Amino acid sequence: MREFFTPAMRKWLGLAFAIIVVDHLTKWWISASLDYQEHIPLLPFFSLVRVHNTGAAFSFLADAGGWQRWFFIAIGVIATAVIVRLLHRHGDEPVALPLALVLGGALGNVIDRVALGHVVDFLYFHYRGFAWPAFNVADMAISVGAVMLVWDSLRGHGPAASKDAP
User: Fold this and answer.
1) Which is catalytic among the residues 35, 63, 112, 121?
2) 124 with 46: CB under 8 angstroms?
């Protein structure tokens, strides 16, 4: 059995940890600075707003009655186990960067769900009648990592295309 904490694995877990730290520092700052649903316009198309998301992306299942908290925590824990295994297997390949981004973002939001029962979102892009749901640093890491994974898979790279994948 190969050593688990290889130099590559330490690097990617370190990146995931850094994302969690930045995510939680920004959420702490917003929570300490803004009241719930307080809105501070910074640009004509961008504001800071403190909202609590009990659902998933775009508040999916936010009004489901409470069971979704444990469901999303379970999904986050399972995703963490799968991603850590993939990082261990593919830590020296380009696919490790997007996996580490998704891992850090997923854990950042899971920590919120466990500790608070919701995720703190605060980055709000809008223009005239159009608005993107508020999000946070963890969501950005997940989104960037997911786009990179899709891009790699479309180019024939990634864990599924690896020659040593089962």
Assistant:
1) 121
2) yes
